[in-house]
Amino acid sequence: MRIRLSDHFTYRRLLRFTLPSIAMMIFTSIYGVVDGYFVSNFVGKTPFAAVNFIMPFLMILGTIGFMFGTGGSALVAKTMGEGNKEKANKDFSLFVYFSAAAGILIAVLGIIFIAPISSALGAEGAMLSDSVTYGRVILMALPAYILQMEFQSFFVTAEKPHLGLAVTLISGFTNMALDALFVAVFHLGLTGAAAATALSQSVGGIIPLFYFLRPNTSILRLTKTGFNGKSLVKACTNGSSEFMSNVSISIVSMLYNIQLLKYAGENGVAAYGVLMYVSMIFSAAFIGYSIGTAPVIGFNYGAGNDKELKGLLRKSIHIILIFSVCMLIFAECLAMPLSKLFVGYDAELLSLTCRGFRIYSFAFLFMGFAIFGSGFFTALNDGLTSAMISFLRTLVFQVIAVILIPLVLDIDGIWLSIVIAEMMAVVVSSIFLAVKRKKFHY
Prior knowledge:
This protein is mainly alpha-helical. Helices cover 87% and strands 0% of the residues. It has helices spanning 11-43, 45-81, 85-120, 125-139, 142-157, 161-185, 189-213, 229-238, 240-302, 306-343, 347-360, 364-379, 383-409, 411-435, 437-440. Helix 1 runs parallel beside helix 6 (161-185) and helix 3 packs antiparallel against helix 4 (125-139).
């Protein structure tokens, strides 16, 4: 039975509605991990380190898709809750067209300047060459990647989360199949791995574009629209937390790489790459849940349904608590097997990765609360509060921790810094939720 944004959400219905978004984000992360697996095992340690070195920069360029996806869908859901479906569709169309055009411009500039940027970040020799090779191929698909990230949120708002999951599965299997073909069979190396990712991202962005351009059974469709600066600014403000979060994570990842080169050399960068791949899978569950609940929260806020809003917050906190404990247990149990999957060919690197994994895993106990807290305020169209939580969580706390804690605990301090930062983010999120309760009536 189809679940609508206006329905009453029990625990079961909430999980049913958000499960496709959770699965979608997890699978997106998994096929990114597959890319790393093939590069590490079939191309080599240095190319693997290069991919992880340049990836944060590439992720920064793609964050516009998250910004318009989360911020735009919150505004569209609120507008629908207010009963103005025509304006909701025009805003939706504006966000898609604008972000696609911006993606083309950013891709061109990225291709031109990726070499000096990689050098400025500290890449040298083979790592510099590999970073540029991988980055330029990936950037060719940047506009499609931006659309893919954007449509992941809008599929939920359109009451079609299962279609979003289906597109993600098609894109993911495309990436896996092409990775195996280009890297393991045709031995195209780093270029083959990059081409596999770029083509899969193109699939993930183009299929939804055609779906929404044609008559469909969802509540959203791409139509003719005009420029609306107010809506664009509001969407950017709403999505500023997700934009800030992704930019900050990428900046902090660069800082981590710099610190790891200092404390552990190339092995440190490779080990951190494994942690990032696995962390993406675990954190994707929280991000997916946040994306899945956002349109429901936004709709009920726009409709003035305070009772349902309170219930959604309470149920979400309970669900995230259970998720968090389970993830910590899974991470601790799977630390060695997952480390072996990527770097089992190097005993020293394996030992470093596994120890880092066991320390880093405690962050999963805390990160879900801050991720949902930020997404909750985005859904309420309070972009400033959402951005503050993300800014403190992903940039301020982590930068301070990764610079200071290693001075005392050496390389273990680098792994522990993320745990400390996530704990502080939970405190900040709790304070904002308490302070804003009367304003938003949750």
